[in-house]
Amino acid sequence: MYVSYQWLTEYFSMDGITPDALGDKMSRTGIEVEDVVTLSEGLKKIVVGHVLSAVPHPDSDHLNICQVNVGEEEPSQIVCGAPNVAAGQHVIVALPGARITGNVKIKKGKMRGEVSNGMICSLQEVGFDDKVIPKAYAEGIYLLPEDAIPGDSVFPYLGMDDAILELSITPNRADALSMRGVAHEVGAIYDKKPQFKAVELNEAPDDSVQNYVKVAVENAEDAPFYTMRVIKNVTIAESPAWLKNKLMHAGIRPINNVVDITNYILLEYGQPLHAFDYDRLATKEIAVRRAQAGEKFLTLDGEERSLSSENIVITNGQEPVALAGVMGGLTTEIVDETVTVALEAALFNPTSVRKTSKAFNLRSESSSRFEKGINQGTVEEASRHAASLIAELAEGTVVSGVEAVGAAKTSPVELDITLERINHILGTAITAEEVVAIFDRLGFTTKEQEGLFQVCIPPRRWDISIEADLVEEVARIYGYDRLPSHLPVTESQPGKLSQQQQIIRNTRGYLEGAGLSQAISYVLTTPKKAQAYMMRASEPTKLLMPMSEDRSTLRMNLLSGLLDDVHYNVARKNTDVALYEIGRVFYQSEDPSQTLLHEEEHVAGVMTGLTVENDWQHAKKATDFFVLKGVVEGLLASYGLKEAVKYVPMTEKEGMHPGRTAAIYLGEKELGFLGQIHPFAQKEYEVGETYVFEMNLQAIIDAAKEAVVYQTIPKYPEMKRDIALLVDEAIQHQELSQFIYEKGGRFLKDVKLFDIYQGEKIEAGKKSMAYTLTFLNNEATLTDEEVTLAFDKVQKALIEVFAVTIR
Amino acid sequence: MDLKSKLAELKQQAMKKIEEVNDLTALNELRVSYLGKKGPLTEVLRGMKDLSAEERPKVGALANEVRDSITALIEAQKERLELEKINQALADEALDVTLPGNPVSIGERHVLTQIIEEIEDLFISMGYQIIEGPEVEQDQYNFEMMNLPKNHPARDMQDTFYITDELLLRTHTSPVQARTMEQHDFSKGPLKMLSPGRVYRRDSDDATHSHQFHQVEGLVIDKHITMADLKGTLEVFAKKLFGEDREIRLRPSYFPFTEPSVEVDVSCFKCNGQGCNVCKGTGWIEILGSGVVHPNVLEMAGIDSTVYGGFAFGLGPDRVAMLKYGVDDIRHFYQNDVRFLNQFKVKG
Ligand SMILES: [Zn+2]
């Protein structure tokens, strides 16, 4: 809502209150003012000119050489390219040295050999937006009133000696979508009472509205109140300057006097009106009803609309003539030939108006007001005022009476509240007198008795319906700055992270320590990526109306998002990437129209490029399977899981390298997987060799944990023995080491692989695995004999079971 | 030459040689040659048997004195030479200490997580619980229980990703509050909660808009909670997040789930309220929305609004990070460029 500061001065004196101060004060007390624009800012030396003559330029087919009276002794010669320039006009002249919009400086000059002392301006050139400029002047210069005095500043003639406050109005304060509403608000802030001039309306005693029209409303919920007046013998013309200026500065394009008046009343009262060309309605019956499905209607923007039963229409008894509250029809709009005007002032169902304007993408000044509510107290007054202005400006005659169906709620609503309640909610010690004074400033009449207020809320503040609304009114006028401040005093309780939250934080800490940075990727992705690298079966969950296919489906894995991140980095030459992500994946468990999705917390990581960079001491080292596996092993060790973790080859995981992928098990439960991505996936994501893991973090959080128990530091030395085994190459480390543990006796504490060899020095199909076995007795010093006994047992068993050769 | 003269000459000669020696091997050779069994001093002592009984002790004493002097000098020289040797060795080991050290590669926590955890820790210290909830929500919890019935005009304020007519991607973390209020047993004490999390709006992504972002919302419900409590809480919060010198101011605003509703500005941390590009010249930065919980919201969660009341507040960590670090494009948070992620190392 654009609010003219000058317009406000019609309601009360604004002496001593600058537009900026007003804007600041409004923002602090109720309605946010986004900007205060001084219309003439940055413009200078722009004056009224009277075109004395205009003759075509001899060397041009479109320029005119004009002699213009700019208030000086001699006329000034100005070359003008506008198609509509003519002698006798009063125009906007930018003198030499002037600044016009966009900080453009006007200089004395020559145009095709002819001297030009400045420029005759269009409205655009003095800062008006294209969309508010009357069509007649859109392609040329603008004409000022004939009584404009040459040489005077043009600003008063264009209503530019003004400042515009741009209000950002929240849905609850639709009462301020009108100048009168804003006046009440400003009055409350500054403790002034706005004065509204009484409307004088002369109705023709010999002609009654009943002679013209009869209204019927099918359903009172659609149009609780519908009124129509008739004004006859009107002359459609351009509006006077004051009216055009007001509309343009409020962001509305002037059309003609009758339409402009309806818009002016909309601005002043917040009451949308619609003017029909009565003769073209071709009926005496107006019926308000729901549209039939598929019914066609030509709106005044020239579009044919196919209607539905959501839409309320005004009909001439046969076919629609207006989409109620949204837009009129082309065939009944006011045109230059209109003689009789049927003026509608009504209330329409907000929900229906909202649906209609949304369905046809027709957001108008009128529909937005109907959606948010209308001051029911001034429907009739707005109509009277409009009729009176049409009589005055279009020289029409208002026939007597109003054709009306239904009623508006015009009486105040009474609301009770106690002083104690107000102070209890605000934490203040405001007195009863202060509260009464605040309600008075707001224009609410109040009766107070022993701390109980009976407050009468006028219909213009329909947003106030409960106690809390009144508390807010008191708080904002009292001033939030005056509110005391302290911390709540409540029964104290400890705040702490849940176990789940703590484990997630620990996971972050571990992975960062391991060199992976935290990524936060998009949850919405393509259907294909959403279903990649899945760890359980589920249908994908798609949005009803995605913004794009790329962001249409909820992820069921974290990896594809992380691979997108790797792609993004690699494309920007960040080739060494180590990232992790903790977040939810979304599975469907049952019918998603009935139940929530199953949201599961996952942790995933990606590593690609170098893990050690080439520097003056070290050769570079590319990341590999075992770098990543070390990270995962360390992470899993950090949870203190009760059950054992094991890694099982996974040869058929889609998107993964068949020989370099392992499933991760906790006991018998599959937690996730790790490995290298398949070369096809590398190609798809345009990345290099990349190692990844993803695990069900929720399962880890929920798994049984081992409490940390202190172990005595051994008093006795440990003993180590090395063993090198020549084994079949198919035998895996996990089998061997587990077997050694089983056979190594109670003193075997650790089995560590320290070498693997496969190559020329040993026979084909075999590999050499070398382990260090560490023995320790916590109770006594181990003897050589004890260790040798255990060690020999292991060797023997290995030979028997795995047919190894001890080397 | 008599023995005395011989001893004197021997001493002078030995002392001179020892003085001049410059390495430990030569020094050891000198020690052996002078003091060893085949050395000249032994030889002198051997000649003593030919001396008179009167002369013998005198020469003996002199011989001892000569031996002691030589020994002492050898020890002193040995100490000196050993020190020199060590010093030389250390000098040879000297490094260019300006060469770079071995890099330690540590990952970084995402800047949004850093901000969220900082807020969580502050409110935990004030006795709040951190409560999370589903990201895919029911219309009922996301909107209706937040006093946003179907067709409420304020639903336009947050365009929504629907999955079905009833299921949607939550547009704020408020539904977590609705769920928690429904469950809370007030006989066990007040409700003080903080709900951080990911939220979604149906928006085209550009420098200032993201269809996915984060929110942190707080809620306190008890019998005697006032707006002054809200103001005090937000003051503590602003100071913690933006610095001790920060002030706040409340401006009336509108949220369907609170009444009264206020927008909270924090005095600009960059210019200290003087006006700059961060605060667009106003000296204040809009950072939070908050208010007194709307009675309808309490009632819909089964809480008696005539007995209980409280406040709620919410803010966007994305916006906070953009303001605090001058990040100019919200998409950076979700594209995960490592050059972006690694900029937030300094933990102060
Ligand atoms: Zn600033």
Notes on the structure:
In chain A, a hairpin with a 6-residue loop joins β35 and β36. Chain A contains 20 helices and 42 strands. Chain A folds into six domains: 66 residues, Phenylalanyl-tRNA Synthetase, Chain B, domain 1 (2-Layer Sandwich), CATH 3.30.56; 115 residues, Beta Barrel (OB fold (Dihydrolipoamide Acetyltransferase, E2P)); 204 residues, Phenylalanyl-tRNA Synthetase, Chain B, domain 3, CATH 3.50.40; 70 residues, Phenylalanyl-tRNA Synthetase, Chain B, domain 1 (2-Layer Sandwich), CATH 3.30.56; 204 residues, Bira Bifunctional Protein, Domain 2 (BirA Bifunctional Protein, domain 2, 2-Layer Sandwich), CATH 3.30.930.10; 88 residues, 2-Layer Sandwich (Alpha-Beta Plaits), CATH 3.30.70.380. In chain A, α5 runs antiparallel to α9. With 807 residues, chain A is α+β, with helices and mostly antiparallel strands. In chain A, 42% of the residues are buried. Chain B folds into two domains: 90 residues; 234 residues, 2-Layer Sandwich (BirA Bifunctional Protein, domain 2), CATH 3.30.930. In chain B, β6 and β7 form a beta hairpin. The longest helix of chain B has 38 residues. The two termini of chain B are 86 Å apart. Chains A and B meet through α2, α7, α10, α12 and α13 of A and α5, β1, β2, β4 and β5 of B. The complex binds zinc ion. The site of zinc ion has 8 residues of chain B, from loops. Chain B: Pfam families: Phe_tRNA-synt_N, tRNA-synt_2d. Chain B: It is found in: Cytoplasm. Chain B: It catalyses: tRNA(Phe) + L-phenylalanine + ATP = L-phenylalanyl-tRNA(Phe) + AMP + diphosphate + H(+).
